[in-house]
Amino acid sequence: MIGKLTGIIDQLAGSQVILDVNGVGYLVTCSARTLRQVGGAKSTIALLVETHVREDAINLYGFAEVEERDWFRLLTTVQGVGAKVALAILSALAPGELAQVIAAQDKATLTKADGVGPKLALRLVTELKDKVPAFMAGAALKPSKASDTGAADISLASDAVSALVNLGYRRAEAFGAVATAARRLEPDAGLDDLIRASLAELSREKVA
Questions:
Q1: Rounded CA separation 191/199 (Å)
Q2: Is the pLDDT of residue 78 over 80?
Q3: Spans of all domains in the chain
Q4: DSSP-assigned states of every residue in 81-117
Q5: Which pLDDT belongs to residue 79?
Q6: Helices (DSSP H) in 7-147: which residue ranges?
Q7: Domain 4-63, classified CATH 2.40.50.140, yes or no
Q8: For 126, which of 39, 64, 116, 158 is 20 to 30 Å away at the CA?
């Protein structure tokens, strides 16, 4: 599988880039957001690549940022969301905006993306509302000594969000506080540390 490509842009056409890597041209499909970042023809770029293998084709999807690639992977876990729709969503919304939209259950904003109607928007917010807080907060945590994959970090963040929701906070504000607190904590911080830091963030927001 191809995970990353570094080369020179040979051609740009619509949502696709032909990337020349040592004389081999790879056809890579990107979101509008990534295309705005890569520059024009003859630019040297590096793209993170998600490879989809089908019976009749091998398709490459490229991303300038880790966050966008990870969101692509998460979006395509939802029934009815293929690569094309996932890229359309990522073209319409930045990763941070998408997290806020799903946490707030804002179906109307999701329908602004091509290919997303009211039913699919409802499915997206329903299926991802419990995954997004842990997904975003876990990404904000520094690498854990206990886990090379980051699974322990994501579990920790999920537990912290659940604790705040149980205390009466809205899920959207809970995951925002956990994500902010996680970025400020040491790598070996535990659940209690994360909850206390998150509560401090929430108190700070109320004062502001």
A1: 12
A2: yes
A3: 4-63, 66-128, 132-207
A4: --HHHHHHHHHHS-HHHHHHHHHTT-HHHHTTSTT--
A5: 92
A6: 32-38, 66-75, 83-92, 95-103, 107-110, 118-128, 132-140
A7: yes
A8: 64
